[in-house]
Design goal:
This protein is an alpha/beta fold. Helices cover 37% and strands 19% of the residues. The chain has a single domain, classed as Response regulator (Rossmann fold, 3-Layer(aba) Sandwich), CATH 3.40.50.
Length: 131
């Protein structure tokens, strides 16, 4: 991160509350502006007045079921960059997520350094013209 006045906004989504809180805290400590959601109601139906559009949406999940597929479709339709972190991800599902527009798909890290490294790698690979 360059400085605190240019904190990158990220939306972090996971129904596993403990992972969500630890991960949000780690990303904030690394200099990101994080909004954490423990539900799949994204994107919001009304814009949030004091929060900028996210540079990246990060979905943490155990596996990709119907609820996750619906959320992923909405995020991609909304034209947000999406990083999917999953504990169980067959290669065919991973391939399908890439084909549908996910910026990256990888194993869900349970340590803060792995999460921060992954998020930074994805952000560094994104086109500056989108989002």
């Amino acid at each position: 991160m360059s400085n605190d006045t240019e904190r990158t906004p990220i939306v972090l989504i996971d129904r596993q509350h403990s992972w969500l809180e630890r991960s949000a805290q780690a990303l904030r400590a690394a200099g990101f502006d994080v909004e954490s959601l423990d539900h799949y109601e994204y994107p919001p139906t009304t814009p949030r007045a004091n929060w900028p559009a996210p540079r990246l949406v990060v979905l943490g999940c155990a596996s990709i079921g119907p609820d996750e597929q619906e959320l992923i479709a909405r995020v991609i339709e909304h034209k947000d960059y999406l990083l999917v972190l999953s504990t169980s991800l067959p290669w065919r599902v991973m391939r399908d997520l890439f084909l549908h527009g996910a910026a990256d798909v990888t194993e869900k890290p349970y340590d803060s350094s792995g999460l921060i490294t992954t998020v930074n790698q994805v952000l560094n690979s994104l086109s500056p013209n989108r989002s």
